[in-house]
């Protein structure tokens, strides 16, 4: 993992301080969020397809999010992707994504709030959205030799997150690096929901290019 990009230094504070909603100190005597250390979330498949995945903490023992996706075909029920929070007793829906066969816009919802996730052009594989939590326009774009990795940047081109695909693993989809260890709450939910939507969109695109149709299980 290369940390040389702006905002993703291995040692020292990231250049991006985090969204305004991040708490400056822990509550009830808990430690304050660590803004100096990147945080890593692990994404595992539940089964042999990519339609059901679990996102865990860095220690790999606490499920933080659960993603479920239907086939995403023309006759599939909407939304196509749903992300819940299994660590909560109510297992609430954190966010959803709906894909469109004839449009390059992905309809995101995070905590019930609609957030259009739009392609930045015919000849680009980047998608952008206006983030309520960060108060900025954020963009996911492809990275790496194979184009399977993704980075999330703000309008200053600072890295906020990076998805590293596990191309040769039978059970793991990849790792999600959060540049700022103090990012949490709705801001983290936005990163996870938009990131998962981008990962699934890329899988659907590759499946369609290979003649596999729209679903891309």
Q: Determine the structural class based on helices, strands and strand pairing.
A: mainly beta
The overall pLDDT average reads 80
Q: Helix content range of the residues, please?
A: 10-25%
Number of distinct helices: 1
Largest sheet report: 12 strands, antiparallel, barrel
Shape: globular
Oligomer: single chain
| Order of the strands making up the biggest sheet | 1-2-3-4-5-6-7-8-9-10-11-12
As a percent range, the share of strand residues is 25-35%
Question: Span between N and C termini?
Answer: 27 Å
* Gyration radius over CA: 17 Å
How many E-type strands? 12
Order of helices and strands: EEEEEEEEEEEEH
Low-confidence stretches: 1-17, 20-33, 213-217
What does this structure look like?
By secondary structure, the protein is mainly β. The protein contains 1 helix and 12 strands. It has one helix at residues 185-209, and strands spanning 39-45, 52-56, 63-69, 81-84, 93-98, 105-110, 113-119, 127-131, 136-143, 149-153, 159-165, 172-178. The protein has a 12-stranded antiparallel barrel with strand order 1-2-3-4-5-6-7-8-9-10-11-12. It is globular. Residues 1-17, 20-33 and 213-217 have low confidence and may be disordered.
């Amino acid at each position: 993992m290369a940390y040389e990009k702006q905002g993703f230094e291995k040692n020292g504070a990231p250049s991006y301080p985090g969204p305004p909603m991040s708490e400056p100190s822990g509550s009830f005597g808990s430690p304050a969020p660590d803004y100096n250390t990147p945080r890593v979330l692990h994404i595992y498949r539940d089964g042999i397809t990519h339609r059901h995945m679990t996102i865990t903490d860095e220690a790999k023992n606490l499920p933080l999010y659960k993603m479920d996706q239907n086939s995403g075909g023309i006759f599939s029920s909407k939304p196509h992707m749903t992300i819940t929070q299994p660590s909560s007793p109510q297992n609430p829906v954190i966010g959803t994504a709906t894909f469109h066969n004839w449009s390059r816009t992905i309809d995101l919802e995070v905590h019930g709030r609609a957030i259009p996730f739009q392609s930045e052009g015919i000849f680009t594989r980047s998608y952008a959205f206006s983030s309520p939590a960060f108060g900025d326009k954020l963009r996911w774009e492809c990275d790496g030799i194979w184009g399977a990795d993704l980075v999330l940047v703000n309008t200053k081109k600072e890295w906020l997150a990076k998805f590293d695909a596990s191309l040769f693993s039978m059970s793991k989809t990849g790792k999600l690096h959060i540049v700022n260890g103090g990012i949490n709450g709705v801001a983290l939910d936005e990163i996870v929901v938009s990131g998962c939507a981008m990962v699934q969109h890329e899988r659907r695109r590759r499946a369609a290019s290979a003649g596999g149709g729209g679903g891309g299980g």
